[in-house]
Write a structure and sequence with these properties.
525 residues, alpha/beta, Rossmann fold, 2 domains, seven-stranded mixed β-sheet
Amino acid sequence: MASHGYYIDYLKKTDKFPQALYHRAKHEKVRETLARIPHGSLVLDAGCGIGNITDRYCHDYAIVGIDEQSSAIQYCHGSCHGNYVEASLYNIPFADNTFDTVLFLDAIEHLTQPVQALEELARVLKVGGSILICTINYANPLWFILENTWHRFFGGGCKTYSRDVHPTRYTMSILRRHCEGLFEEVYLQKRVINMELFYLGRKTDFCMKSDLSIGKMAIKNNSAPCGHEKKAHLFKYEDEVLYKCGLCGLIFTDKYNTHIDSRRAYENYYKDSTGGRFNFGIEHLIKLFRFWRAFKMFTIYPRAGRILDIGSGRGFMLYYLKKYYGYERTVGTQISKNGYEFSRNKLGLEIYDKDLLEIQFSKNEFDMVTLWHVLEHVATPEFYIDRIHDILREDGKLIVEVPNFDSWTRRITGKYWLGLDLDYHVYFFMPEDISRLLKKHHFKIKIVHTFSLEYSTFISAQSLVSRITKTDQIFFKSLQSDGPVRLPIIHLLLFILLIPFCFLINLLLYFSKKGEVIFIIAQKD
């Protein structure tokens, strides 16, 4: 960025004549660009200045503003809504393929190395995502006149006519050349009496063939667990703040850095010595799903004889694998006292009432390890993955299923999404994030899809009902209540109407990465 950078007093003047003419055109283009993506999508406001764009759109999108000028970021924190990070555009503290859209408005002309910044923006933009660039058209003599009259005498500290402030001066041909190879051009237009340029580009698979990564990739390729030193605010749901790490890309709550007494937290997760959680005969349905899960494990790896199920619930899957599929050793971990005692005393399983990291398993001890909706609950997922790699035999398989933070209903329903479960969940995963985490710890990804016969339809329907009625998962809580619960008739009717629709949508989204849960089969590499 040029040495003079942004000046707060100057930026405050940009909503006044004659800049207001340009800003109306700019906001029109921003609205058009953001209308292409669903509400709740991740957006980067690169070179955010005093936060006008981030403040305006933060209620509808997960938008993050970044700027290297500390005075601008301080102003944003004190006067604007939204999330802001002080960072250089040459070294953006977010992981590859993070954002659905990048807005690069009134910033590129301030850079001495604009192509390097464009490469960084391409790196953090998802494949298929769009970038909107707005800058001055220096080929238009009208801008020269405006710059040397209005800006010279009324422009405040930011003297745009100075090469120190605008070191890079764009024409259509220069902007197109700088973006070539990084983005596929959607349009390049001149607006506001041809004084302003608006470029919309799209990142494609072809663009990915270029190596856009920079020095910090060495950090990511290191198998050492990430300490989340570069975290940024992503969302705020009631009193809980969600962060996204700029190095590893994972999303998490403040609980990641807090000592969690897991035994106390899950003390009442299962009701009593029966190990039950649900009412109205739902437990019978749970057993049916666990039988289906056992069958699926057998079909995935028929030769497996030794399996470890981390967070094994009441142990039904392990019980069925041993009884019907001839597994020689079925081992589980369960820190909930009631779940542990039911699995051990009623089902006769080999169960440990300890955290995985506290148990002294031998290297190469298991053919298969499974994590069914567990990884989102732990404070140190990287330590878990690393430990699992040690205890799996060569070519052993790891099965992981977690809620999908990039699901279609999370984007629609926000805080009403059932998969949030902020009382228990510490981490939140998207398909790309968890795949990258597994690869980092030397696993080869075999299958990824986002459909669960057990969870997908119910999560979608409950989330939509909660969003429509603006209530807190009443139907789901009624299934777990010890006493009678009066379920409003509107909730029941909405469920009846939405269940077929949600089932069909989730089935169609099987391999789209937008379904409710992420299911991964990985192999020890």
